[in-house]
Structures are given as structure tokens and as C-alpha cells.
Amino acid sequence: MKRARLVTTVLFILLIPMLPLQDVSGEQGIVHSRSVDHTLFFIEGEGGDSTGSMTPSKSAVNNLIEYEVNPEAAATRVKLYSFESEIGVGGTIPDGVWTHAIDYRVEGASAAAGNWTTEIEIGGEMFETSVTTTAGRGGTYEMDVDIDQINVNRGDRIRVSFYLENGIIWSSPDDESGMWISWGGPESTAGIQVNAPLLDIEMMEPNVDGNEVFFPIRFHSAYADELATTESLTAKIQGNVIQGNPYVSNIENGVEIVYVWDSSGFESGNYTLNLTLQPQDGVNIQSELSHELILDGTSGGGDGWYPSSEPVRTGGSSLHVQIDVNQVDNRLERTSTLEIEGAVATWLRWGLDNIGNESLDSTSWWRELDVSGDIVGSEGHNNREVDDSELERLVNHLTGSGRDLADFLDRGLALESNAILGGEPFDLEGALNIDVDLQNQNSFGPEPIIIKIRSSTVLESGSFVFIESFVRSQSKTYWTEVSLDASLSTNPLQGISNVYSEEIDADHLRVGIAENVRVSFTSDERMDDFRVTITPATSFVDGPLTGLFLVLIILLLTGTVSVKGTRTRSRGPSIFWLILSSIILLILYTTGIRMAIVLGAGIGIFVMALLIIFISPRNIIDGLDGIPDRKIPVIDCPICKQTNPISSDERPLRLPCGGCGRTLLIE
Question: Is the pLDDT of residue 656 over 90?
């Protein structure tokens, strides 16, 4: 009996390391490694035989794609879409049910019936289900697939394929009946709901530097850089949230996230770091580790934290774009200002200190940047801060060619260079002028960076795109907060014929010395699909100064006629119309209505003033009302033709004219 208890005790001790512990006390350890219920959302792809990808990060689902189901596909098996991705991390997938969610809509019929098949391939093993069902007008349809327990390794693939068997059977169809399936939009739920290993979280030994404590955390996963966004992460020390965005850099098989905690006012002792990861609604992964920290100031003067590999750009960044365009003769002078803060700013500072570093990944933009001429001196290279020579090297590279600048915007910053620069790189005229302002922060960090680009393009005949969507659609989201303030101004003699805006509001004002167009939105109103097109005026009449001059002439003529024409009539209606029409005409002018319409309205106002004068009642002559049934001699004023009664027999008689007030002498 004692021997049996001894064996049991030994076995229990041996099994302790295999238990799935979440709270680990120590300096370093993997504190999360197990299967997680989550959704792999469908992104990218085009449907049919093309293959898209999948992501567990809801913030990466930002590009809606629709695919029309071929209604003519009868008696055949048609692939509607296929999506493929890696297993997040090695482990065991338990047996259970995975759910395939399909977003769809039906038009021209009340329903669409069919035989649908879902195939799921996991590491070479195939699972499938087929159902015959009727879909309604639209929404989300779900298909369950039974999955057996399977051991997987990182690098194994998950592939989801969806088929239609033998065509669609319509209910109450018409000639335009159609069915579309969709995925990838911000509101989309299309994907596969799985229970599978997602990531390993490794909490590393902290680094104390004076009052700053650096907590490195590593995500080991195929989805590591997508999960490491500030929107999905929260780090706490003793229950208090660590403020500020963490540093995020690439490591082998994942990313490293470093939180910086200001420990001022705290004493040495045991501190627990808690990390919460929420990549999507309903998924809440928590890990924590306790550390013994010495906070007596003896660790001051250190180097803080500087990643050995290139920081990622997906850790959460804000971007404010300000664009000022001046229309000068046949040219558009454009100044584009980019204010960058967050992970991309960190990447820029680190990259400037690592220009041409051959140890970087072959796809790194900084490795490809030419460092010929030894502009970056050996003393300033890789010294953990940006030197003037390094900044000069970047500016020289970008100003040397419009294509290099476009490449920096397109690949480096994930922006649409055409939208920022106002045209194709080879369409730019004159020398580019670029200024990079680090805001007095030359060391590694996420503080704001301002990049100002001045470019010029020739204004061709016809319309041109003033501003359009400038954030590139991609599965990995660089920009979590985006805002815009763009304005265009003309000179006094150049007008705008039309402003056409798509999916955004544009303010168009005419102020005499210029016409102005302004487009803006805040980070809370972020818009990723918009365009504003401007058509310059071809007639001098459309110029803001010329237009103002013509409007004032119309109002002056209308006012003069209204006053002159009502000397013997009631002036009230004419004065009221003059005030009202002046307000209307000026509003039409200032709000940028085409000058042809404004001048047409002005002519209409003038004609209306004549009609009002014609129908206005004549003034009653003083003195006639009190003398009924009596013929009274009258005299017409030779100046204004006003008829004046002669109420006295006295001669000579001086009589004031009732119209113009001049004195009439009657002898």
C-alpha cells in the first residue's frame, strides 16, 4: 500500500509541468498555450478559383468583396471561394464542431435553394459537410462541420472551400434574379469558427532603467503581427493600465511587444503584469506574470529598450493628412503634410538609424535604400538615435526621384502616392521639396513625425481629382486613426465650374478674390472610400472676381430701377424685394453655384423688380381726399411729371412738388 502511494506521488510530481497553468510566478515563462475558440475571418481573394486568406484580427477586416454566384452552373460542381491560412501555433485541435459562416444576398427572387458543400482541410486531413437548403433574401447562413481531434504543427495549413452543386433553384424569380456572397467588410461575419491553437504568449524578464521599466512580451504565432495592435491589447501593473502604445518589433516566429511603465513614486517589491488580448468580440485571452523589481534608482543611465530587429508597423498609429492646393494658371501647386504618431513613427526612427543595414530582412524597405557615397558616417550609424546625416540621406533619396517618393509612400507607409502627390510620379513637374521634422525627438520612440511634401502638376483640360482615398487596402492595418483636412484655392480670375464628390461632403465657397474647396473628416468620422473631382471653369465670366463684379452690377441696376420707378408709387414691395433678392444672389454666389446660374438668377431678379414696380399702387395725392365733388386745378412738375393740386387762388404762388420736392412758381 505504501509503495502504491509512493508511485502515485511520483507520477503526480512528474505531471505537474504538463498542467495548463495561466498564472506563473517568476522572471520569464510561457503563460498561455492552448486551443482557443475564435473566428478566422475571410479576407482578400476574388472568389471562384482564386484563394484568399484568413485572420483572427477583426481590425484587419476592412475591405468588402462580393462574388456573384453563377446561376447557369447546372449539373456541375462550382467552387464559389477558397481561403487558406497557417495554423497559428502548434498544439492539439480537439474534436468538435467548426461553423462556416457565409454572408449572402439575393435579388430578383424570394429565395435561392441549392446543394452547398463546405470542405475543411487541416494539415492534410479533410473534413466536409453537404446540405440542401433554401436561403432567404440575405443575411448570414451557417454550416456546421464535424472535426476530429488532430495534432498540428506551426506551418500546417487550414483551407476552407465552398461549393455549389448542380446550380440554383429560384423561388419567384424574374429576369434579373441573382445571388451574391461576400466577405472581408468591416461588418462582415464571413469566416470559419474554430477551436484551435492561436498563439503562445511568452512574458520575458523586465528591464529597469531609472524610473522606466520595460516589459517585453513575445507572441509566437503565424498571426502575431495582426494580433499585436493597440486596439486589442491592454497591459496592467497591479490593476493599473500602462498608458501609451507599446513598441512592437519582429522576431523569429512572431513579434516582441514592449510596454514602458513609469515607476516614479513606487517602491521595490513584487509586481504582477497582466496582459489582456481581445482580437475579436467574444475572445478574451489573459496572461500574467509576477516580477521582483528593484526600483531604488540604481539602474539609471541604461540604454532603455532598442529592438534588435525591425519594428512592425501594425502596432497602432494615427495619421493626420493636411493638403493645400493652389491653382495657379495651368499648374496645381500642392503641399501635403503627414503627421504620423505611433508604431509607424517608431518604425521611421528605427529605420533611419538602420539605413542600408544588410542584416535586415530582404523585404525591408530600409535595407533597399541606397547608401552609396557613405553619407551616413560610421559614428552615426546604429547609435540608437537619428543623426542629421541619416535624415539627410532619406530626404536626398526621396527628392531624387518621384518614383522613389511614391515607393516610400506606397510600400513604406501603405498610402496611395497618387492621392498624396496629386498624380502619377512621372507627371510631377519641377523639383520636389521634402521636409522631415522629428519634433526634437531623435531617439527611438512613437512620438509624432511631420513629413511635408511640396509637388506640382500641370493642369490639363477637363476635370482632375482633387483628393481621394489615400489609405491602401490591406490585410495588415497600419493606420488605426486617420483624419484629413484638404483645401484648394484659385486666383481671382480662375473659377471652378463643378465640384463632384463621392461618399464625402465638400464645401465650395466663392469669396471674390478666390474660390475655395474644402474636404475634411476626423478620426471618429474616418472614411476609406471617397473621391472629390473638380472641373475648372473655361470662361472668364466664371472667375470669382469677375463674377462678383457682375453680381454687384446687377444689384446696382436693380436698386436704381426700384428707386426711380417708385417715385409716384408705393416703395415698400420694391425695397423688400431688393433686400431679399440681394441676399439670395449673394448666397448663390458665395456657395459656389455655377456663375451661369447665378447670372441667370440675377437677370430674373431684375425682371421681377420691374414687375413689382408695375403692380405697385400709386401714391395718393395729398389734399384731394378732403375736397369731394370739386374740380381742382392741377399743375404737372416739369422735372418729375408729378401732378400737384393748386389749392389756393393766391398769385404768385410757390408750391412744393409732391414728387421731387422742388418749388413750383405759379404766377
Answer: no
- This model's pTM is above 0.85: no
Cβ 444 vs Cβ 309: under 8 Å: no
Q: Does 13 score more than 70 pLDDT?
A: no
Q: What is the pLDDT of residues 481-537, one digit of tens each?
A: 899 999 999 988 888 989 999 989 999 999 888 999 999 999 888 888 899 999 998
200-293: CATH topology is Immunoglobulin-like (2.60.40)
Residue of 353, 313, 314 lying closest to 443 (CA atoms): 353
CB atoms within 10 A of CB 362: 7
Cα distance between residue 588 and residue 499, in whole Å: 15
Q: Please, what's the b/e burial string for 403-413 (b: 16 or more CB within 10 A of its CB; e: otherwise)?
A: ebbbbbbbebb
Give DSSP secondary structure letters for 247-262: EEEEETTEEEEEEEEE
Distance from C-alpha of 417 to C-alpha of 431, rounded to nearest angstrom? 17
Q: Are strands 507-510 and 23-25 parallel, antiparallel or unpaired?
A: unpaired
CA dihedral 370, 372, 377, 380 (to 10 degrees): 0
SS3 11: helix
240: number of Cβ within 10 Å: 10
CATH class of 35-197: mainly beta
**d(C-alpha 302, C-alpha 212), whole Å:** 10
